[in-house]
Amino acid sequence: xxxxxxxxxxxxxxxxxxxxxxxxLAAADGEDGAHCIHELWMRGDIGSSIEQRIxxxxxVAADGIPDWLPMRYVEWLPLAYEATQEFQTKKRGKHNxxxxxxxxxxxxxxxHGIYVGMSRYEPAERxxxxxxxxxxAGCVTRRGLEVLTGPTLHLQRISRADAAxxxxxxxxALTARGIFVQGGH
Length: 185
Fold this sequence. Notes:
Elements: H1 14-26, H2 30-42, H3 47-61, H4 77-84, E1 92-103, E2 112-119, H5 123-132, H6 138-143, E3 144-147, H7 160-176, E4 181-183
Parallel strand pairs: 2-4
Antiparallel strand pairs: 1-2, 1-3
Helix pairs in contact: 1-2, 2-3
């Protein structure tokens, strides 16, 4: 699996990217299609276009779509990637830093926020725990939509000290970029 942070399709022209996406659809290649969508997203493509591509890819290649591709368009996702790439780890370990997309469509102008957390559990498992009310942050229980796996792939299986430091500093970095942040403590 290619890491989306490396943006493996960055060198393609817009036309080549669209052609590669159509080829991925024809071949039901979820990973290639996801990388095409991701690259268009990082380049600032229109939200409705991203949503349409996500839907088309799900209709033909659901089983092959990597879990790092969000299921819905979030305008500030490139900023989240930018912020997370500032952090490097010193030691391997058993802890993970994770992000959860939050739904604030009913109460804020920007419909999404983000929760920053750390855990010894895998991010998807920890999200399920939040939703089940196990050591849960109320904002994730009530407003959590999905784990945003892609930006934090390099922040998995790290030391507890690194995870605690990064969790707090990442929350600050995301807030500084204008993203509404919960957690990070």
